[in-house]
Amino acid sequence: MIELSHLDLSFGEGSSAQQVLSDVTFNVLDGEVFGLVGESGSGKSTVLRCIAGLYDHWTGTITVDGHPVDKNLGKEHYRKVQMVFQDPYGSLHPKRSINSALIAPLQIHKIGDEDKRINEVLDQVGLPRSSRFRYPHQLSGGQRQRVAIARALILEPQLMLLDEPTSALDVSVQAEILNLLVQIRKERHLSYVMVSHDLAVITHLCDRLAVMRQGCIEEVLSKEALLTGKMKVDYTKTLYEASRSYDRAMANQLETA
Amino acid sequence: MTSQITTAEDLQEQKKKKSFLLRTARSPREALLQRVALGFLEFTSNKLALIGALIVIGLIIVAIFAPTIAPFDPNEQNLSIALQAPSSAHWFGTDEYGRDIFSRIVFGSRITLYIVTLVTVTVGPIGLAIGAFSGYYGGIVDVIVMRITDLFLSFPSLILTLAFVAVLGPGLEQAVLAIALTGWPQIARLARVEALTIRKTDYVAASQLQGASDSRIIFRDIIPMCLPSVVIRVTLNMASIILTAAGLGFLGLGAQPPAPEWGAMTSTGRQYMLDSWWVVTYPGLAIMVVSLAFNLFGDGLRDVLDPRSN
Amino acid sequence: MSLIPEVTDHSPLIEVENLWVRYKMRHLTMNAVRGVSFHLGREKLAIVGESGSGKSTVGRALLQLLSDNADVTADVMRFGDFDLRTASEKQMQKIRGAHISMILQDPKYSLNPVITVGEQIAEAYRVHTRASRKEAKARTIEMIKAVQIRNPERVYDLYPHQVSGGMGQRIMIAMMLIAEPDIIIADEPTSALDVTVRLQILAILDDLVQDRGIGLMFISHDLNLVRSFCDRVIIMYGGQIVETIAAKDLDKVQHPYSQGLLNSLPSLEHQREFLPVLDRDPAWMQQMEVRK
Predict the structure, then answer these.
(1) Please, what is the angle between helix A171-188 and helix A141-153, to 10°?
(2) Maximum CA pair distance of chain B?
(3) Contact B10 C285 (CB under 8 A)
(4) Among A34, B84, B196, B291, whose CB has the most other CB atoms within 10 angstroms?
């Protein structure tokens, strides 16, 4: 489904240039759920945005479903790949109603049957049809995230990019959204690439994952390998242990500032 | 904004409010009406803003119904009653040509309104569009536009306006054009600054991800978010437009005689100021009251439009 | 200035009984905290809840840090012998920092961006002691070292935007501990930090609390974190305390909300296809009897 090869990205020029991604290479198979895990500054969200086509000043190759992602992305790309953002408060236009947000992609791609499609997608994400004309500030965080998912689904993509979709949500709401994502994937046979800093969330959804650190991929491993302690790289082990619980002895082993 | 868990007592209190505003909108039109109604309620709770708005409305009414309201023809001269103090016949007295000052002020409101409206309607949308495009595209486009606005903004506005008038010649239309030419860069800069922030938001990224064209993003995503600050700026500018126009009129560069433009009236009235104070005072008061009204109105509008929890 | 007479290890430092916080807004009154009672000793106490549960409000109510339209009432709200309900602003200023300190979530927003971090810590020290600038600076450097920052002299002169999240939080801790308080209220102190940095910060807090016998009130939404870090856990929902339990007994929670919350967490150890979703029983929102 996705192939990334030697992806490099830096911001800035000359002496102030910052290498954000270095030689990132991995594959995502059709129908797979692939996770990108790392701490802040690891570049995981940046990779996602490169796949989406939001950044274009990278070098290397990215192919989605056999088609290269490059500067001239046709509209077909956006029917294949959609993204759900982290902040439910920032990913919906504050002045536009839910209906307006959902209708926009249909209008851009000149897809008809607007009413039917909007209602269908609202049903699928578990939102009442009556919320169609509400505004984002009238909805809770969980509801907004459902709208964001609905908006991504309405174009019937094959690949969903999920950028920390539940980090900004309450614990109980997180469970609902994660369940929703699992359910949708099954029903629509989608592939997911999910970014998170939370290892528990990643292992809940993903089959395989890549551990990133400061722009590089440390390791790509399967969920089972992670859970059974068969990681090959120390950093992965550190991340795993640190995510499990607070342990005074463990803290001693970590480098101090 | 954290979610608030309310108890049963809280919910009951909420239900006591008007039901129309609380119920879920069933159509886009209803949603829009609700927002307008809520905005209106909030605006009217601000007493000063309300006063400003009423005065502005008053100005519009006076301008529309000028022939009915004015007891005399503003241009009718009658030298025998020149420079008469305010009386029951002539509420604001008469000027040096025996013209009724009250009638002249009433008709002068048309000129004021004409200038304010025309300038605002040109400067607002054009400045907004230029600024939004400039901010969204960034790069060389932004640089060029910004240097042009720099050029305009480096002159004190009145001086610049005078310079334009010097080129265009005296007259009402020329004054409007000059003021508009001086005013658009400020709006463009404001819109550009907002656009710079907005283009980085996730909802703009989401639009880009849907394959939206640049102009669609600018007009549907960016410009609505720039609108509040631009509207506020434009409303507050109205006061200075009035003052500039009055200034131009005072210098004889705006509306030409015998047009009852308030600034021109103040200017010509200077000569008679000591003995016939009313010739200067009433036009001056008119300018002051209307400018103040626009200012108060603009303040109130800002309180309503400026999203407090963005 | 010590307001606490000789306190043994087992008597509570803070006692709260029937705390209510009501926000008066234009058309309605919102009850953020409803009849909360608890005590804090020389221990690590967690207050856990989701957004809107009132957990942050409790912490701020103790220090009178709520907005003017907040109405705080309690039968008891005591720090040692000192009645926090009736304290004047002047008295509270003496208490904040010197006796009860507060660590907030994001150091980006709680540090003054135009003053160096060292200066800010030194200032905190000078406010509560009559130390000279030199003494304050020396103490500050010591404190920075105590939070395990290498090169404390260099870090002293840095500005907040020059320090990373983890270091910024250590600076906050240094600033809040330099006047040697008896109690720390930490409001989501590690939520904005990476997992590895989080561990280090918690270790620092852990050590400081043990060494100095400080009482720590740890406010968080992260149940997993507090179960291994804290001694006791209080779970809040809808402004009320639904359960109080020892951290090691967290598996045995009784209240359905607590159970639901624990179960709905994705867990590394316990993989499930669908997470059990919390079914909110409206009965949980009903006002509970205040237990004395």
Answers:
(1) 20
(2) 78
(3) no
(4) A34
ipTM, 2 decimals? 0.86
CB B107 within 8 A of CB B66: yes
**For position A182, what pLDDT does the model report?**
92
Cβ <8 Å between B7 and C238: yes
Q: How far apart are CA C5 and CA A127, in angstroms?
A: 58
Subunits with 3+ C-beta pairs closer than 8 A to C? A, B
Q: What is the pTM of this model?
A: 0.82
**Contact predicate A134/B25, CB 8 Å:** yes
> Which residues span the domain enclosing A184?
2-256
CA distance C266 to chain B (A): 23
Cβ–Cβ below 8 Å for B13 and C30: no
What domains can you pick out in chain C, each with its CATH number? Answer: 1-99+181-292 (3.40.50.300), 108-180 (no CATH)
Give C149's contacts (C-beta < 8 A, 6+ positions apart): A256, A257, C155, C167, C170, C171
Long-range contacts of A212-215 (CB under 8 A, 24+ apart): A212/A24, A212/A36, A212/A37, A212/A38, A212/A42, A212/A43, A212/A44, A212/A47, A213/A38, A213/A39, A213/A42, A214/A41, A214/A42, A214/A43, A215/A9, A215/A19, A215/A20, A215/A21, A215/A22, A215/A24, A215/A41, A215/A42, A215/A43
> What are the backbone angles phi and psi of residue B187, rounded to the nearest 5°?
-65, -40
Q: Are the C-beta atoms of A150 and A121 separated by less than 8 Å?
A: yes
Q: What is the pLDDT of residues B12-38, one digit of tens each?
A: 555 544 466 666 666 767 777 877 887
Q: CA–CA distance from A93 to each of A53, A60, A144 (Å)?
A: 20, 33, 11
Total domains in chain A come to 1
Cβ contact, residue pair A227, C271, below 8 Å:
yes
Total residues belonging to chain A: 257
| pLDDT at B126 (0 to 100) | 93
Beta-carbon count within 10 A of B308 CB: 6
Q: Is the peptide bond preceding residue A68 cis, with omega within 30 degrees of 0? A: no
Residue of B2, B3, B4, B5 for testing the chain C interface, max C β-carbons within 10 Å: B5
Nearest CB to C27; choose among B7, B8, B13: B13
CATH number at residue A251: 3.40.50.300
